[in-house]
Amino acid sequence: MKDTPIPIPITPWRYSILKPKPSPPERLFLVEPPHGCNYFPDRRASTLFVDPRYPKDRRLQTFLVENGFRRSGEHLYRPHCRNCRACVPVRIPVAEFQPRRSQRRVWRKNRDLTSRILSPKFRDEHFQLYYRYLDARHPEGGMANPTPAQYLDFLTADWVEAMFVEFRLGDRLLGVGVLDCLDNGLSAVYTFFDPDYPERSLGVYAILWSIHEARRVNLDWLYLGYWIETLPRMCYKNEYRPQERFWEGKWEKASF
């Protein structure tokens, strides 16, 4: 089945942002046909994609992320399920963030790590860590046994302004965080880390580092992707407070 193009109603000021030159397409979005849901086996899912032919840049990505979209590879997308609204975008106002006691412990525990920001390109050392991470943490998922091409297709895009952040213990690579740079914040795309160091809580540390970095460069938000209330593996996102959730077309402070 082919993706179905749909029109998007946009106000004049939004259209001035999105309008490409010299010949704008009539439609910006494509709807993926219903398919099995990755989170709920008994449900059908559908996704709204930005037309791959549409020119993309940081300004457009910022606007769309502010409206609940995410990036995967070259694609900007948002869940578009007919009878389900379980996937809720979340973001952290970095200036207001207050680490919890357990998060402060993680930060102190990893004081011996060094971080380095790199350009988004293939590095074999990163790929080998990514492969080990998926094999240990997600062996049954559709991402298992990736190829280098699949790795790049998932994490990078020709148009995006992204960075790969290394975390090292001496010379040993312990983790990599992939972040997109937006006009008003950072968007966490993916983090992978050495599964042999569970005591370091490297996933938590990567989020804390990203909050600190966004604050350091005077950005407003860290976007953490989608949160699903009933899914245990998403519960960790509740630990970063205060936070806002995108619901019914607007961002609202989350209550706990």
Automatic annotation (TrEMBL):
Q: Which InterPro entries match?
A: Acyl_CoA_acyltransferase, Asp_Glu_LeuTrfase, N-end_Aminoacyl_Trfase, N-end_Aminoacyl_Trfase_C, N-end_Aminoacyl_Trfase_N
Q: What protein is this chain from?
A: Aspartate/glutamate leucyltransferase
Q: What is its EC number?
A: 2.3.2.29
Q: Which GO terms describe its biological process?
A: ubiquitin-dependent protein catabolic process via the N-end rule pathway
* Catalyzed reactions per annotation: N-terminal L-aspartyl-[protein] + L-leucyl-tRNA(Leu) = N-terminal L-leucyl-L-aspartyl-[protein] + tRNA(Leu) + H(+); N-terminal L-glutamyl-[protein] + L-leucyl-tRNA(Leu) = N-terminal L-leucyl-L-glutamyl-[protein] + tRNA(Leu) + H(+)
Q: What class of enzyme is it?
A: transferase
Q: Sorted alphabetically, which SUPFAM superfamilies does this protein's record hold?
A: Acyl-CoA N-acyltransferases (Nat)
Purpose? Functions in the N-end rule pathway of protein degradation where it conjugates Leu from its aminoacyl-tRNA to the N-termini of proteins containing an N-terminal aspartate or glutamate.
Similarity field: Belongs to the R-transferase family. Bpt subfamily.
Q: Which GO terms describe its cellular component?
A: cytoplasm
Q: Where in the cell is it found?
A: Cytoplasm
Question: Which organism is the protein's source?
Answer: Candidatus Kentrum sp. FM
